[in-house]
Every structure is written in C-alpha cells, then in structure tokens.
Design goal:
By secondary structure, this protein is α+β, with helices and mostly antiparallel strands. The protein has one domain: 2-Layer Sandwich (Alpha-Beta Plaits). It contains 3 helices and 4 strands; from the N terminus they run E-H-E-E-H-E-H. Helix 1 packs antiparallel against helix 2.
C-alpha cells in the first residue's frame, strides 16, 4: 500500500486560501484540499510577537507527491516563509486512500 500524507499551510485571507487549494488540486498534486478559518495564529516574526487572523488549507495526497505540492505552495504563496507541514496518514479507509491515488495519478 502506498503511503499517504496530509499537508498543512496557512495564509492571510479566504481568497488566498482558495487560490492555494485550487492550485494544488488542479495540478493533481493533491486529491483534496479543505479550508478552515478564520483561525487566530500567535507566533514570533522578526523579533516581535504577532497575532493574526489566518485561514488553514489541509491537503490529502500520496507521500511521493509532496515535492510537487511543496513547489506549488511556494510558487503561489504570498508569505516569505510559508508554513508547510506534512503528517503521515497512519490509518484510513481503503476506498478513500484508493480515491486519493486515482485522483493524483500522473
């Protein structure tokens, strides 16, 4: 069985989140992208504590498609240092995981 991951990024508007989601899915680097938000992010940036409203994009994809999705996110993203975090999907329904593979087959 192929390994699968989720990839998370955040951005500063609903429109930009939709642009990121569409870019990854339309390129078939990810089978699906979900958008949450707004969320409140608290973080350090350039020596100052920041508190901002953001939107989260969560992609589902085969692990071997990560390099392609990472490049897409970096090329579309407006942040200097975008959050790009991957996590293994350790369990999932066989039918859903097969769907992910089918929708990202090159």
């Amino acid at each position: 069985m192929a390994s699968y991951i989720t990839v998370l990024t955040t951005t500063d508007s609903a429109d930009r989140a939709q642009e990121l989601a569409r870019a990854g899915v339309s390129a078939r680097a990810a089978a699906c992208a979900q958008i949450d938000g707004p969320i409140r992010s608290v973080y350090w940036w350039e020596g100052a504590l920041q508190v901002d409203e953001e939107w989260r994009v969560l992609y589902k994809l085969p692990a071997d498609r990560f390099p392609e999705l990472e490049q897409i996110i970096k090329s579309v993203h407006s942040y200097d240092t975008p959050e790009i975090i991957a996590a293994d999907i350790t369990h999932g329904s066989g039918e859903y995981l097969q769907w992910i593979s089918a929708e990202t087959a090159g």
